[in-house]
């Protein structure tokens, strides 16, 4: 199961230096720096940096960094500079708009207004409206009010929609994963978009959405420090109630992927859908999952264990080792504490509707034995183990490197056996 990573360090060059060529202000330095990168003028870009920066970052390295950003976030478009901003602030954060993401770039300067380092220290926001169905199924963009803000999502229907057709609520997995199944940290698989197309091709509508604080659901009154697991459950319940209220739809199905399985099985207790489908859903408490994943890195496991123990007790941790900050950053500790309280085996026992448990034998994140544990907890559930399917629901080899390559291939189709098994169960 993927963990939430809300900060991604790109460059650490916070070195005190001076220069003979001072810019007018820090904002102008940042603007000229990015403008030069966008024009592939890497020497000009480095002219805006300190002597020590240039000593550590060559023209070739600068080109590689910038091209890497464009590969990860899509083609660069523009730098957004607010009217009301301290032009000499350090650090200075400006939003860079790329093809698929809006990326907050944080710049650091010395007294001479030279750039000494830049980072991505906040979560890039997915521009969800850039991925549409290549199969041209009808889509409807929907905005739904929930506690503290608005959730944005997409309803996809068959090409010849029928009144009373069933509709599936697709709940995304962990992290800043958007409605299409993509996130800023390497997942560009279009998993949920492809799943919606497969359903539409078989007469089933679907609603996939950006969870709060993600993509077009980013404008909430609460900041991420206050988000807890139950917020996602409450959102799913409101969205499910909205779909049930629509007269053009009939049966409601809930499909939860990875962490979305936990969200979905708790929401299902209130929504009472016609069926609940868990795909790559965890069969253990998140605290145990994290401990298991860290066993392959003993030095990290030793550092993480006392932190996990405190979080299990509901206590926050002020000092986190830098190498574990992606896992236990203070901004997401309240969410982790609330997630640790969820016991999947206890929750699935409460469900009385038909249940399908799907797992792939080559899932590197949630091993297929988790589905077997869920099956033991609710023996009436149908268990579907799919050979050679990985966590993003693609056919993939067992080797880690080759498996992870499929995460970045949006054109790779979903595993065929998954679609056949899912449709057979629902129909």
Describe this structure as you would to a colleague.
The protein has 427 residues and is an alpha/beta fold. It has two domains: 26-122, Nuclear Transport Factor 2, Chain: A (Roll); 128-285 and 342-426, Alpha/Beta hydrolase fold, catalytic domain (Rossmann fold, 3-Layer(aba) Sandwich). Helices cover 34% and strands 19% of the residues. It has 15 helices and 13 strands. It has helices spanning 26-38, 42-46, 51-56, 59-73, 191-200, 229-245, 259-271, 286-294, 298-312, 325-328, 333-340, 344-348, 369-377, 400-405, 416-426, and strands at 76-80, 92-98, 101-109, 115-119, 125-126, 139-146, 149-156, 165-171, 205-209, 249-257, 275-279, 355-360, 382-386. An eight-stranded mixed β-sheet has the order 6-7-9-8-10-11-12-13, with helices on both faces. α6 (229-245) packs across α7 (259-271) and α8 (286-294) runs antiparallel to α9 (298-312). The protein starts with 25 loop residues before the first helix and ends with a helix.
């Amino acid at each position: 199961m993927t963990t939430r990573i809300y900060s991604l360090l790109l460059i650490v060059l916070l070195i005190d230096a001076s220069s003979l060529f001072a810019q007018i202000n820090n904002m102008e330095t940042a603007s000229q720096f990015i403008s030069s990168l966008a024009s592939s003028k890497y020497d000009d870009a480095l002219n805006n940096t300190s002597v020590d920066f240039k000593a550590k970052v060559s023209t070739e390295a600068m080109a590689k960094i910038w091209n890497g950003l464009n590969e990860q976030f899509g083609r660069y478009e523009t730098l957004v500079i607010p009217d009301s901003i301290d032009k000499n602030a350090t650090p200075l954060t400006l939003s860079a708009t790329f093809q698929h993401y809006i990326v907050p770039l944080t710049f650091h300067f010395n007294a001479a207004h030279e750039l000494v380092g830049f980072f991505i220290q906040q979560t890039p926001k997915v521009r969800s409206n850039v991925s549409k169905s290549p199969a041209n199924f009808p889509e409807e963009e929907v905005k739904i009010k929930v506690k503290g803000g608005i959730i944005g999502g997409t309803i996809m229907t068959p090409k010849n929609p029928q009144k009373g057709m069933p509709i599936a609520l697709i709940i995304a997995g962990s992290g800043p994963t958007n409605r299409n199944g993509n996130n800023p940290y390497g997942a560009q698989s279009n998993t949920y978009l492809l799943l919606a197309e497969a359903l539409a091709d078989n007469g089933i509508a679907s609603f996939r959405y950006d969870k709060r604080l993600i993509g077009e659901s980013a404008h909430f009154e609460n900041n991420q420090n206050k988000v807890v697991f139950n917020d996602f459950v409450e959102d799913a319940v409101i969205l499910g109630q909205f779909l049930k209220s629509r007269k053009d739809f009939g049966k409601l199905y809930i499909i939860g992927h990875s962490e979305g399985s936990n969200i979905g099985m708790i929401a299902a207790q209130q929504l009472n859908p016609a069926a609940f489908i868990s795909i790559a859903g965890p069969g253990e408490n998140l605290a145990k999952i994290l401990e298991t994943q860290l066993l392959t890195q003993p030095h990290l496991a030793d550092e993480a264990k006392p932190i996990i123990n405190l979080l299990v007790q509901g206590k926050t941790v002020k000092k986190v080792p830098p190498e574990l900050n992606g896992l236990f950053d203070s901004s997401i500790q309240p969410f982790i504490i609330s997630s640790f309280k969820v016991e999947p085996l206890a929750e699935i026992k409460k469900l009385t509707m038909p249940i399908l448990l799907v797992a792939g034998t080559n899932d590197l994140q949630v091993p297929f034995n988790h589905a077997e544990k869920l099956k033991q907890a609710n023996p009436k559930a149908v268990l579907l183990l799919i050979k050679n399917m990985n966590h993003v629901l693609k056919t993939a080899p067992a080797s880690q490197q080759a498996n992870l390559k499929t995460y970045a291939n949006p054109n790779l189709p979903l595993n065929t056996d998954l679609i056949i098994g899912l449709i057979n169960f629902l129909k």
